[in-house]
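Budget justification aside, the reviewers requested a transparent look at the raw inputs and outputs of the sequence design task funded under Objective 1. We therefore reproduce one unedited record. The lines immediately below are the structure tokens for a 153-residue chain.
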């Protein structure tokens, strides 16, 4: 397994909290954030992205589902490997980016492709256990003032 830890940037949004300390070294629960990230990496690998995609496909039977998997310029060839993976479902589109365009821009990369009233940004380490996306979409559409929904952990 290879991984990219996105730890760059100027940290302008957190400057009042982090000061001159790099964000990955900011303590969280008595450990630097980077230590938490490394512990998570020990638990998760490339196969987990594929498992997440397969769980979404399995538990979201809606024919109008469009699932975009964005690889944000992974230097280890992960994007190419994902693009070559046959998920057996035409609803999946893998978009390997040539370079890392930043966390937010990576998420926003698909916005001009969307035609839906609701879209979800999902992390690659999720596994669905039921058809929750359709229920969440219905919940959002029933509440015109709602802009976001998150799962209960």
């Amino acid at each position: 397994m290879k991984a990219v830890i996105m730890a760059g940037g100027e940290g302008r949004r957190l400057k009042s909290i982090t000061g001159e300390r790099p964000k990955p070294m900011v303590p969280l629960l008595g450990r630097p954030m980077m230590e938490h990230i490394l512990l998570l990496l020990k638990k998760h690998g490339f196969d987990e992205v594929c498992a997440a995609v397969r769980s979404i496909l399995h538990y979201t039977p809606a024919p109008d589902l469009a699932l975009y998997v964005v690889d944000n310029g992974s230097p280890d060839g992960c994007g190419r490997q994902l693009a070559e993976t046959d998920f057996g479902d035409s609803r999946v589109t893998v978009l390997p980016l040539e370079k890392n365009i930043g966390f937010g821009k990576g998420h926003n990369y698909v916005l001009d492709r969307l035609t839906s009233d609701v879209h979800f940004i999902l992390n690659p380490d999720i596994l669905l256990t039921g058809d929750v996306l359709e229920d969440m979409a219905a919940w959002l559409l029933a509440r015109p003032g709602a802009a976001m929904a998150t799962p209960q952990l």
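Residues 46-59 form the longest helix (14 residues). Residues 132 and 152 are 12 Å apart (CA to CA). Computational costs for records of this kind are itemized in the attached budget.
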